[in-house]
Amino acid sequence: xxxxxxxxxxxxxxxxxxxxxxxxxxxxxxxxxxxxxxxxxxxxxxxxxxxxxxxxxxxxxxxxxxxxxxxxxxxxxxxxxxxxxxxxxxxxxxxxxxxxxxxxxxxxxxxxxxxxxxxxxxxxxxxxxxxxxxxxxxxxxxxxxxxxxxxxxxxxxxxxxxxxxxxxxxxxxxxxxxxxxxxxxxxxxxxxxxxxxxxxxxxxxxxxxxxxxxxxxxxxxxxxxxxxxxxxxxxxxxxxxxxxxxxxxxxxxxxxxxxxxxxxxxxxxxxxxxxxxxxx
Length: 280
Description:
Elements: H1 8-26, H2 35-79, H3 86-95, H4 97-127, H5 134-167, H6 172-185, H7 187-230, H8 235-278
Helix pairs in contact: 2-3, 2-4, 2-5, 2-8, 4-5, 5-6, 7-8
């Protein structure tokens, strides 16, 4: 009934396997493959993966900045009725890459600093409630009253500076100076454009929310239920379907974000050209 193998060779093989495992874990494997080497190889692959992700991130950063410059220049040329090839607009974006990158970095650092200053009092009140005093509340109110309008003004100036760099071939210093003067002369049209763009974003966000809530989620729930009830135990198929659904959702969201970004930049460029040419 029970097949018991008392073979000396079988016992020897098992003993050799155990000795090899012991040698591998202790770093003395006869085959040359040791734990230290395995860890070293894993570290090499981690470094390679990190470098690949870093290069991909730098490429995407370069492409986004160049595309921003190309779009700014292309909208201006189209507004003036000129026929512009994609290569020409892309070359303009590459030409202004470093200037655009510098301004975008400045804008990002300023936005980060303002965000930290505004949110720091809230974090202190949440994690250190003993400091929840009248003075702290006044500091929070002052932060909103000062930092938020300051951030809005800086965003207007930086935006106009980008347009001066690309469409008027200004240096960074000259572009910031002219961007500030343009904002001072035309702060009301600038605020109106900001409100219009914000309303468009809100409307698109509301439409997407309603579509996801009343169409996408019920459809996904129905399909998921059908898969679970039909293919019981087929976890792989369910994982594939869920992954494809998430991938499709991500692609759609990226496409919507790209369309909104094109709309926003185009609207601001057209306003800039109107303000610069007519002095609204």
